[in-house]
Automatic annotation (TrEMBL):
Source domain of life: Archaea
PANTHER family in UniProt: SLR1258 PROTEIN
Pfam families, per database record: SIMPL
Taxonomic source organism: Halorussus aquaticus
Protein name: SIMPL domain-containing protein
Amino acid sequence: MYKGVFATVGVALLLVTAGCVGSVAPTADASAQTQQPDRGGKTIGVSATGQAAATPDQAVVRVAVVASDDDANVVRESLAENVTRMREALGQAGVADDQIRTVAYNIEQEYREEGGERRPAGFRGVHAFEITLSNASRAGAIIDAAVSNGADRVDGVELTLSEERRREVRAEALRDAMDSARANADVIAESANLTITGVHSASTGDVSYSPVRAESLSADAAGQSGTQIESGPVTVVAQVQVTYNATGA
């Protein structure tokens, strides 16, 4: 079953906050160590975290068409009719077919408790879609187009970065992490009466993204305003492990 944040027709405002599920929070402290390899050279090992933020340039809108009836065939036909109407409206709004994909489709028997027994109560069908937009600012207008033309549910909105922009911001986060690593290594070297002569090895650890997700939805009292989306920046966090060559005492 497709899961998400649900809203009924007439949604006028989406309040969004930064989602941090699975992300690694940046830390001000970096773990570090000095070590002496067998060959006699000295090294300083440092782990550091860096981050970068960017305005979302991509939106993923999740909507669903829902139908109920005592006859499963009627449910199927109703879903097909409303999906066709919704997709036509999205096409007129400039959304191409390859920007829309089905993420869930099911028609299932529903039941109700009656006299202590579980009895059939008709059928319910759901056809859920994911709409990917290259212009995040259009998310509200696309939600309005979908809800006004067959969509019964808004399951969520995610404002994020395109693959190209994500690579660019990831590189910024890695550069920030490397700067932090060198700054920490310099402090360690100074404290140990060592001088850094270069990088012995470097590797990257986890890189996490914190897209902006819809957390709560509320309806406009007058029901006349279009859907509005408040957005914050998408944060990218990167970790690096760097070993520096050093000379000295």
